[in-house]
Write a structure and sequence with these properties.
By secondary structure, the protein is an alpha/beta fold. About 40% of the residues lie in helices and about 20% in strands. Helix 1 crosses helix 2. The termini are far apart.
């Protein structure tokens, strides 16, 4: 199987542009072939074992399995992270949230709630090596992957298994300068508009909230933030654009101030921050 054969095979499922991008990712990540290598035909020189593996990869992709799970790798802010089924795949929108954070004090204490693969916490730990970074997740599988990623990226992050909705930890006042979270925020009623590869493969507990309470996680995190954020400490959230205004109102009602929404690259309100 060649690069051209693979992207032609995937085009009916993903469209030509995305199919080519997926095929290039397969050859680059799995076989170390650059686009230049593909242009000069090095994809025709793979071994019989590699060709057999390519056939298996193609079959998995045809079943709509995300390329990140097929390769067990996902890119985030120019770095590669391990991912596997049961661990949410990092998104470009989350990169924008991380870039929005600017620390005045490089020794800040940061808490990442719902860390998944650890991409947010690890990126911040790398950007601010003097900071103390803690990361929570309810999933032991996610935490195992996150710890592996932290070791690979040679950063120190304290990972803990904590359910923010049932957090029994005794909160310590003035613990954190920043709490950041990309919590579940998609309502169940939005499922029908979602891509099959997301619905069939990514962890639903990291994606969905009840229709009747779309701000469930934001409320819990903001309540916790009132107890543990330092004075003038910040909350940073990735958000569902449909509920940006209700979330703004919720944060205001909880006495947060300097509340600001920010659009993502597609012009959708995708993130919000608020100061305690």
């Amino acid at each position: 199987m060649t690069y051209e054969t693979l992207w032609h095979l995937l085009t009916p499922l993903y469209g030509e542009g995305e199919a080519k991008a997926i095929a290039r990712m397969v050859y680059e990540v799995r076989y170390g072939l650059t686009f230049t290598d593909l242009c000069i035909g090095k994809d025709t020189q793979l071994s019989a074992d590699d060709q057999a593996e390519l056939e298996e990869i193609a079959q998995r992709l045809e079943r709509h399995e995300p390329i990140q799970y097929v390769l067990a790798k996902a890119e985030f802010m120019g770095e590669w992270y391990d991912v596997e089924p049961g661990v949410l795949i990092p998104r470009p929108e989350t990169e924008e949230l991380v870039r929005w954070i600017v620390l005045k004090e490089t020794t800040a204490n940061i808490l990442d709630i719902g860390t998944g693969s650890g991409c947010i916490a690890i990126t911040l730990a790398a950007m601010y090596p003097k900071a103390t970074v803690t990361a929570w997740d309810i999933s032991e599988k996610a935490l195992k992957v996150a710890r592996t990623n932290a070791i690979r990226h040679k950063v120190n992050v304290l990972f803990q298994q904590v359910d923010i909705l049932a957090n029994s930890q005794q909160p310590k006042a003035n613990s954190y300068d920043i709490i950041i979270s990309n919590p579940p925020y998609i309502c169940n009623k939005e499922r029908e508009a979602m891509e099959q590869n997301v619905l069939d493969y990514e962890p639903h507990e990291a994606l969905f909230v009840p229709d009747e309470d779309p701000l469930l996680f934001y409320r819990a995190i903001a309540e916790y933030g009132k107890k543990v954020l330092k004075p003038d400490g910040w909350l940073y959230f990735e958000i569902n654009p449909l509920y940006a205004e209700p979330l703004r109102e919720l944060l205001h009602s909880m006495s947060y101030h300097d509340i600001e929404c920010k659009d993502d690259q597609y012009g959708k309100q995708r993130m919000i921050r608020a100061r305690r």
